Amino acid sequence: MDFRTTDEQRGFAHALHDLTSRADPVSAARAWAAGDHDPGLALWRRLADQGVTALVVPLEHGGLGGSPVDLAVAFEVLGHQLAVGPWVESAAYLTRALPPEQVGAVADGVVATVAVPPHVPYAVDADVAALVHLVTPQGVHRAAPDEQVRSLDTTRHLFTVAAESDGSAPECDDAFDHAVLACSAQLLGCAERLLADTVTHVQGRRQYGRTIGSFQAVKHQLADVRIGLDFARPLVHGAAVALHSGDPAASRSVSAAKVAAGDAAHRASRVALQLHGAVGYTAELDLGLWIHRVRALVNAWGTTTFHRGRVADALPGTA
Amino acid sequence: MNLDLSPDEIAFRDEARAWLAANVPAEPLPSMDTPEGFRAHQEWETTLADARWSVVSWPEAYHGRGASLVEWVIFEEEYYRAGAPGRVSQNGIFLLSPTLFEHGTKEQQDRWLPPMATGEQVWAQAWSEPEAGSDLAALRSRAERDDHRGGWVLNGQKTWSSRASYAHWGFGLFRSDPDSERHRGLTYFCFPLAAEGVTVRPIAQLDGEPGFAEIFLDDVFVPDVDVLGEPGQGWAVAMSTAGNERGLSLRSPGRFCATADRLVELWRRQGAPAELRDRVVDAWLGAEAYRLYTWGTVSRLVDGGQIGYSGSVNKVFWSDLDVAMHETALDLLAAEGEVRGPWVDGYLFSLSGPIYAGTNEVQRNVVAERILGLPREARG
What we know:
The structure holds two protein chains of two kinds.
Chain A: H1 7-22, H2 25-33, H3 38-49, H4 68-80, H5 87-97, H6 100-108, E1 112-115, E2 123-124, E3 131-136, E4 139-150, E5 157-163, H7 173-204, E6 206-207, E7 210-211, H8 216-244, H9 250-276, H10 287-298, H11 304-313
Parallel strand pairs in A: 1-3
Antiparallel strand pairs in A: 2-5, 3-4, 4-5, 6-7
Chain B: H1 7-23, H2 35-50, H3 69-81, H4 90-103, H5 106-118, E1 123-126, E2 142-146, E3 151-162, E4 169-175, E5 186-192, E6 198-203, E7 212-223, E8 227-228, H6 234-246, H7 253-269, H8 277-302, H9 310-333, H10 342-350, H11 360-371
Parallel strand pairs in B: 1-4
Antiparallel strand pairs in B: 2-3, 3-7, 4-5, 5-8, 6-7
Helix pairs in contact in B: 1-3, 3-7, 4-5, 4-6, 6-9, 7-8, 7-9, 8-9, 9-10, 9-11
């Protein structure tokens, strides 16, 4: 029993964090939103070179043979750094859903995206993805982007897609669970960033002759964000361990993780906006990028209501 | 990262599970805050101790099994899953004993630990005072040196002393240096509640039972052998106990997992009403989060880490979770939810959680100031 990330995993997270920071990910995200994909794709390439897209691909299919815990560790960094692009779709879903002969390209860093209706009705960033897929009950189809719809998160370009091939019919439940796990970890990362930036803000901002961070009404909201995150992370890591060990209740654990991470991140984003005040409500401040990202991810890969339902259906004692 | 138990831990779990299945009373014991319930709970502690299950983490010399922290958590999970009685000795075995093991003399350990383990002597805490609740360092009860008799004379008033109505010994802080302020000049004393000059006045709690009491001390003599740690160092000595109360030992995950499982059963029995589904899910999910969080803490501690200020994070979470779970149960019971029974008892008990062991307001301040690094608020 050792419920901690390993030194190696922490080192991996640090390396990804440093690499991303050097690439100015926020500028890349703003450029991405404006239609300039180059900086974002350059960062994608660098992260892929670090193995992020190959983490949960088996060694024999050209991957790193890592665990879902590695995936969670990496995606928390991606959330914290606001990495743009279809990360969940490529690195977590398609690497698990595609047939072995097609996985290699995604593992190597080819940008790929997918729509999985009803939970994922749009393929994110299908305009920039080299591979676009649609998953239906018949399986995984090649697909082409159709119409674009606007996301409140301007760094997510959503597209309806149309199938272009018959579906192969692999088992996609495991891929869905990996995607939900990655999405949950990304939410944690976003929330940690929102909390950190808000703590910095209230430490510097003065009103009524004192630092606003000294007011209990401010402190207690931030304490609740800290507490929510501290209890969401074990569920995310627990879900990763459950997926790794082939636990029959793994889907329940994954849904529990999404609910907790979604709620914790939502709280973090609301508190962040409230405590920044009017400046937080400006498009100029980067904070809003994370606030919108959280709002989008809370309902991506299954709404909180859907995931609560999955937990309810699998509670202990269920026949 | 894994949650696998070793073969030895699995064997330990199975042994505990089998013993509990065979020995846990079929009917719940009367409330431990009634005279007959207190005695029944003491007898249960003796039964536990005879089979060496009352203090599994203590050394074998003191009725324990020398169990590891992992085994302790396993035992607690089994204990509450089996529906076993609440621990009347918890102030002693969970709050005082860590301090006693760390700061007590061998003579004190030999004298106090065995009867604590068997339930023969039950301990009450004597921290709060009428003017020193959340702000414990404002305490005014005093200890004056009596060199002639070789000890100290205690005077003052303690309050909200859990179990004091029927307990045998009290432990708490007194101001031993009259010129001192706040955290300085305090000394940690243990004293028999039957000592001359001690008056215990029970206070009925929200559940109607005298679960806590006021303790009046009027020239109570305490010999030097009953001082815990160095005179004047009481605050530092006491903090190891406070950390335990907020952190791991008072609220093991087993309690919440068992409550969550019962809540799920209740929900089903009530026809699985859809409108309460999300609250039941959140209760189960919260208990699961607490269980996993605890394994994370245990992993750190086993590796030599400290609980530190995360005890405050922990305390806010479990106390709010406990209230939420019981309120959900009462709402599931609907109009029957006001009828006295195990859920109502649990609910009334849960209401004290956000208040005792340092109110949740104080804990949130600790989280904000010590973990997030926000500036301290002005304090008088």
